[in-house]
Write a structure and sequence with these properties.
By secondary structure, the chain is α+β, with helices and mostly antiparallel strands. It has one domain. Helices cover 21% and strands 29% of the residues. The protein is built from two helices and six strands. Strand 4 and strand 5 form a beta hairpin. It is globular, with a radius of gyration of 18 Å.
Length: 146
């Protein structure tokens, strides 16, 4: 009996490990692979916007916000990814910061990335982001409205 269980455990372990790698995979630039192609997604802001008041925005610069899926009623469906690009005014090239929201099991997951050279690294994530986004609770925790 034990000899039959061992191969099953091995297969389950390999499948679980592959699932973790698939969830955590990143693109060549350090952003998660689930953000690939975000610039072709519908933009949910009519025109780029800026915030100059550091108390009203954690993300300073010129911003655009993209959503992988449209709202259903007042909420975004599970699996939605929202990407906000943040660029210093007058700067060209890839955005200096990228803030990402991903809705899984009815809850948003937040990660903010900063560009260092040609790759993005994590600047902030989790509860720090959630604390601020509580102010946008009525809009499914998304500040940008469409």
């Amino acid at each position: 009996m034990r000899l039959r269980i061992l191969p099953v455990v091995g297969v389950v372990s390999l499948a679980a490990a592959a699932g973790v790698v698939a969830v955590a995979s990143s693109s060549a630039n350090g952003l998660p692979s689930y953000t690939n192609g975000y610039a072709k997604w519908p933009r949910i802001n009519k025109k780029p916007f800026t915030s100059t008041d550091p108390l009203s925005s954690a993300h300073q610069g010129v911003k655009n916000v993209y959503a992988s899926r449209r709202k259903v009623g007042k909420r975004y469906p599970n699996g939605t990814v929202i990407v906000k690009t943040i660029q210093a005014a007058g700067r060209m090239g890839p955005p200096g910061q990228v803030a990402v929201m991903r809705k899984l099991n009815g809850r948003w997951r937040y990660v903010e990335y900063g560009l260092s050279g040609t790759r993005y690294g994590i600047l902030a994530q989790g509860q720090l982001c959630q604390n601020c986004h509580m102010a946008a609770r009525a809009n499914d925790y998304v500040f940008t409205r469409k």
